[in-house]
Amino acid sequence: MPAPIPMGLNFGLQNSSQRFKRKFRWIFAIDDRGKATVAAPMLPPIKSSRPNINFKEFNVQHLTETIYFPGKPDWKPIPLSLYDLKCNENQVFKWIKSIYVPSEGKTGEWRPSLEKSSFGHFKRTGYLTLFDGCGFALEEWVFENIWPQQINFGELEMGNSDVVTVDLMLRYDRAYEREPARKTLESDQGCKDSC
User: Fold this and answer.
1) pLDDT at residue 152 above 50?
2) Which among 182, 193, 162 is positioned nearest to 84, based on CA atoms?
């Protein structure tokens, strides 16, 4: 008896070892120059995205036609939305204070972004890791020199019972994909490859 023919084009989806990447299985971590700070304990994440790159083009005039070439890569900022929990110290505002400390009744203190302060560095390294249903890492992105370009502490409304959130727009120098450093969410997973 011949093997069954899959419907449509054969992309290997009939193979039981294939694992789909799901939009809700991810962790965003920010490394404060050696001290790993996962964004979830900092403030739990709601929404983010993977990198977005655009190549600036330049053209060359050639006889009767125009020829285009890819130029410098332009990495677009990525959004990161976090739940705003009650904690002893707001980690997002602590990040702001590593470069700018507003004070009551006087001009805010400003520090250059590359200078290390008592609060740490402003530009850090970010890690976005995607997991499968068993907690095994499928993909990891590294964001070099990431910093909050825009921070929105959110609006409030008396007639709305939603949870308060903090929305960040994160700027970075470059991003690349690498072999996941964090192999699993937990050190001991009882799952099998059938997840």
Assistant:
1) yes
2) 162
pLDDT band at 195 (very low <50, low <70, confident <90, very high): very low
Q: Say whether pLDDT at 13 is over 80.
A: no
DSSP, collapsed to helix, strand or coil, labels residue 97 as helix
Which 8-state DSSP code applies to residue 104? Answer: T
Structural domain boundaries of the chain?
26-178
Does the pLDDT value for residue 14 go beyond 90? no
Burial 8-18 (b: 16+ CB within 10 A, else e): eeeeeeeeeee
In CATH, the architecture of 26-178 is Roll (2.30)
Helix, strand, coil % over all residues of the chain, rounded to 5: 5, 45, 45
| Strand-pair partners of 165 | 83
Q: What is the pLDDT of residue 76?
A: 95
- Which three-class secondary structure state does DSSP give residue 190? coil
